[in-house]
Design a protein that fits this description.
Order of helices and strands: EHEEEHHEHEEHEEEHEEHEHH
Structural class: alpha/beta
Low-confidence stretches: none
Radius of gyration: 19 Å
Distance between the termini: 44 Å
Length: about 300
Amino acid sequence: MKILKRILVTGGAGFLGSHLCDRLLADGNDVICLDNLFTGSKDNIRHLLVNPYFEYIRHDVTEPIQLEVDQIYNLACPASPIHYQYNPIKTANTSVLGAINMLELARKTNARILQASTSEVYGNPQIHPQPESYWGSVNPIGIRSCYDEGKRMAETLFFDYHRQYDVDIRVIRIFNTYGPRMNPSDGRVVSNFIVQAIRGEALTVYGTGTQTRSFCYVDDLIDGMVRMMETEDFLGPVNLGNPEEFTMMNLAKKIINLTGSNSHIVHAKLPSDDPVQRQPIIDLAMEMLDWKPSISLDDGLQRTIAYFRKIL
């Protein structure tokens, strides 16, 4: 008989966290979802509340908590500019104090812990595409630094806890991810474009639209995350994302086409410190995790559009 792993997912009611809870339960684990619902939603986990192997706790990771767990996925942090800039000090505290509290829990319970870091640690990169060896180009006093530097500090804490206390860590750097359960008002480009297209509104492209991103469908990302947690003798950091690069203009036109919308495109001023390019090198993930994305942008967007049609 398989012995259940007791797994804690912080930020488990969020976009990525809820999909991770789905996957971990499907794999036969006992899952604790911890979320303060600042950006997460009970709607994302409502279907799980009847599962006897799922438990929801409303709690803020900036406060310590005592639990008995085998693994911890630390996803708790606002991840869109609208949300993390709403209360930048709270955002920084979530990244830093949250990391400390979860690392302390891992230390006490001898649990393996995975930090969901971000491609934002590379800032506005001077190297393109971005390998894990690149240290980044981040403005430490800009409006995005509460998130960028908070995540960078969390990575520092993870590796210091490993070196000083031998905590069993894993660190991933997540590039742009999209899919069902994205918040329609979170300000992210995929959700923005889809919502505007479905409503027949103009799609807002910031700057010239030549800036690039790489978009990974949520199921692919979650698979990489679980593979990283389960791998041995590899701490990371490792990039998880889709290495295909798209301009914002190309994405806007694709979404207008896929939705059959009559929307047109308008331009607005580029936000401060917005990265010009973002594209992962995933050679390390392919080598160490035998992982690469399998879902095409068209397929993933169609699934995401279908979700937004249901909720709008």
